[in-house]
Design goal:
The structure is a homodimer. By secondary structure, the first copy, chain A, is an alpha+beta fold. Chain A is built from 11 helices and 16 strands. Chains A and B meet through helix 8, helix 9, strand 14 and helix 11 of A and helix 8, helix 9, strand 14 and helix 11 of B.
Chain lengths: ~400, ~400
């Protein structure tokens, strides 16, 4: 049975009970009106912590520290900065991450080991700790600070990304809220992508880790902007149980929470793709009829990640041969002669061959903000959805002149 | 000992003794002055055949047929068309590939099963066999037809790609010549990429297959334009032994031939990258000091394939954090704190950290047609080289409007 999920308008990481957040400008990014670059999320009470990190072998010491601290499964706060990835800076990186967490711990009066740390921005330059020491104390935390926190983690994002929803679990309404930042380098397996999810549900730590992993696999790991993976990607879930009710550890309650958690993560992930550097259109790729879930995931991600698909969407060109090519190279089990393809619901390929379709209608349907490709493999019952964006001249221009 | 390899100016698939080739215009591509779209290479005598094909699961029936015929290890001719990939057209595709090979066999008077067939161009439309039947007979084959053949396989290539070299093996000079076409969709594991190599050396069939695989792994499989892989990629080697001498099956002779074969394949591969859609600069990525060859190959290809690296080269920006990111995500064994990076010979990173370097000098060195990144892992003695091109606005423009 599908859980009753309700969207909370304007919600974010402080929508759930018992969370405060805030942000300040510490001078890590070029100054402009209203800019923020350093933020904190605090749980009033000890929270269950789950986290998922980048698979890149070069990682920021901020990731190294948070990975270690997330292992104990509980914590109180997260401090995050934008403007500097604190990566590829040698031994200094871990010292700085540790100090930044300690400064935050002292500011919100919790133990240092209860604070996780995230960084995003340029690789190869040290965190300007003097600025962080000077300005971290300016962060004012309150129950309406979710928006400031979301703004403080932005890099090339054009706007803060936040989302919250409530779901009834065994008669008790719990809230799940999140903030994320993305833009360039977004790829399955995570990339310069930070995500923070808070909830007032009471979660068993092992369940929380499994549920977060599942939600990330079906959301952040199914989006693609440019195929690159960052050194800093992190998604952190904090569950403080402030809403009361029984501890969720699986079963029907676990399934309902999972559904709502995935919903929030997918909403954030889609928003990241939609706001990717230079993107004009969101591409949703649905692969169904797959023999195994793995096949569906591989095929959907391959299509969403293909540059030739991304450019054809930019050009509103239903060049379905490129979709066939991308499905074929994905490694998914398939039989070419059974593949059906639909563009925005209009079927254009049946049994692997083009059927007569109204090209004008398809091109016209591709002019909107969203383009959906449905690829039916007719091999089984599994499905998966991936999201990508079109590739435009603006992406090239933006990324040709990032650090100069 | 390095083999003595001599470049043959203006050489191609008819440089080796005993090969004829030619091309004609059959009407498969939009007409323009001097355009060709159908070509044949013929060996005067039965030749040893080796071939390497795409790893895409959706393949053109032209590939299916050639794969089968290449297995017997001998053959006489290859017929190739551009303008139509003969892919994703159902059962008709294999009939058409078989007929096209039969028409060519009849034209050059050899057995149909001694003819391989290659197609490149749009996916999802049937080969216009009426045009091929009508025009294939116009192909005039002679010992100077290499250039016409190279022109007949072009799609978005701006010019034909040919190369030939000679090498002395046990006192006998043998010639290796090649033609290739590339442009978009080029990626490791091969992509809309056709390559044809002819030689008058006498090759043992098993040796020929191993040598071609090795040469392709070090050349065509180390280039990247956009990460996509085509349904039609094929590299075919024909060795007719017309120059005499003993059969090469390995040993010192095999090593010398391998070196020359790899040289010709690398020359063709680099030319494909240089002429890729929208490309302005060739990027050469040398990874050395790797523990295993596999690590070096993974890291080199990952850097050459990264969009963020490609765009930074377009912007002449030594944003080495992106190189670290690409090396890190490659899966190669590495220790971040041992990595050294050089841009066009200028060291900018030592032990994983930026060193003081003249930014102006590096940016200025990145203004040429070639940019070399050397990444030293300091983990072992293995190395590999990959080639890519910068990603420009022109790529987007070209690929947003391919079939419209």
């Amino acid at each position: 049975m599908a859980a009753m999920i309700e969207l909370i308008q304007g919600g974010g990481v402080t929508s759930a009970k018992g969370f405060k957040a805030g942000g300040t400008y510490a001078g890590l990014k070029t100054p402009s009106e209203g800019i923020l670059d350093l933020g904190i999320i605090l749980s009033d009470d000890p929270a269950t912590i789950a986290a998922v990190f980048t698979s890149n072998k070069v990682v920021s010491p901020s990731v190294t520290l948070s990975r270690k601290r997330a292992k104990k499964g509980t914590g109180r706060a997260v401090v995050a900065n934008s403007g500097c990835a604190n990566c590829a800076v040698g031994a200094q990186g871990l010292k700085d991450a540790t100090e930044m967490a300690a400064l935050a711990a002292s500011h919100v009066d919790v133990a240092p080991e209860d604070v996780l740390v995230c960084s995003t921005g340029m690789i190869g330059v040290e965190l300007p700790m003097a600025l962080i020491r000077q300005n971290l104390g300016n962060i004012k935390l309150d129950g309406k600070g979710g928006n400031d926190f979301a703004r403080s983690i932005m890099t090339t994002d054009s706007h803060p990304k936040q989302f919250a929803a409530s779901v009834e679990i065994s008669g008790k309404k719990v809230t799940i809220g999140g903030a994320a930042k993305g833009a360039g380098m977004i790829h399955p397996n995570m990339a310069t992508m930070l995500g923070f999810v808070t909830t007032d549900a009471d979660l068993d730590p092992a369940y929380a880790q499994t549920a977060l992993k599942q939600a990330v696999d079906d959301s952040f790991n199914m989006i693609d902007v440019d195929g690159d993976q960052s050194t800093n990607d992190t998604v952190i879930l904090m569950a403080n149980g402030a809403r009361g009710g029984t501890k969720i550890a699986g079963g029907a309650d676990g399934a309902a929470f999972q559904e709502a958690l995935t919903y929030v993560c997918q909403a954030l992930a889609k928003e990241l793709v939609r706001d990717a550097e230079g993107a004009q259109r969101l591409i949703e790729v649905v692969v169904d009829g797959a023999k195994a879930k793995k096949d569906a995931r591989l095929a959907a991600r391959s299509v969403a990640a293909s540059l030739l698909v991304k450019t054809m969407v930019h050009g509103r060109d239903p060049n379905w041969g490129r979709i066939m090519m991308a499905v074929g190279k994905s490694g998914a089990n398939l039989d070419e002669s059974k593949i059906d393809i639909y563009v925005n619901g209009i079927q254009i390929v049946h049994n692997g061959i083009s059927i007569p379709y109204s090209r004008d209608a398809v091109v016209s349907s591709m002019s909107g903000d969203n383009v959906t490709f449905q690829i039916t493999l007719n091999q089984g019952k599994e499905s998966a959805t991936a999201w990508g964006c079109d590739l435009t001249e603006a992406y090239i221009i933006e990324n040709s002149a990032y650090s100069t």
